[in-house]
Amino acid sequence: MVEQERQCRKRLQNDYAGELYDSVWRSYGILANARKVSTEEMMDKLSHLRLGVDMGIIRGISTWQINELMLAGQPNFINENSKKNLSPEQRDWERAALTRNTLKTIKIEEE
Predict the structure, then answer these.
(1) How far from chain centre, in Å, is Cα 111?
(2) Overall number of domains in the chain
(3) Domain that residue 94 falls in
(4) Which own/partner pairs from 90-98 qualify as long-range (CB within 8 Å, at least 24 positions apart)?
(5) Is Transferase among the key words of this record (predicted)?
(6) What is the pTM of this model?
(7) Lowest CB count within 10 Å: 27, 60, 71, 99, which one?
């Protein structure tokens, strides 16, 4: 299973390097600037970011930090942190603010 993933990543890097690079940086840009982000979109963009870290496309953020953001952006975690029972839309705004503020504290660099 691990070997299959390595082969898949190598194929991605060889055959789709430009698209992969753009996807990783586009995901970072959205997360660093969006004002409203759903749980699904956050998970998708953070997954792209994590792939970028794992493949050496982006530096300065660790997979641990990305995993922490994935956890902190979950609906129950946001409600617990805010000490309120927020609506889904309010959570989307809070999630985006949390992600933006976290990414501001991290010096992200290109490969």
Answers:
(1) 17
(2) 1
(3) 2-110
(4) 91/39, 92/36, 92/37, 92/38, 93/35, 93/36, 95/37, 95/38, 95/39, 95/42, 96/34, 96/35, 96/36, 96/37, 97/35, 98/69, 98/72, 98/73
(5) yes
(6) 0.88
(7) 71
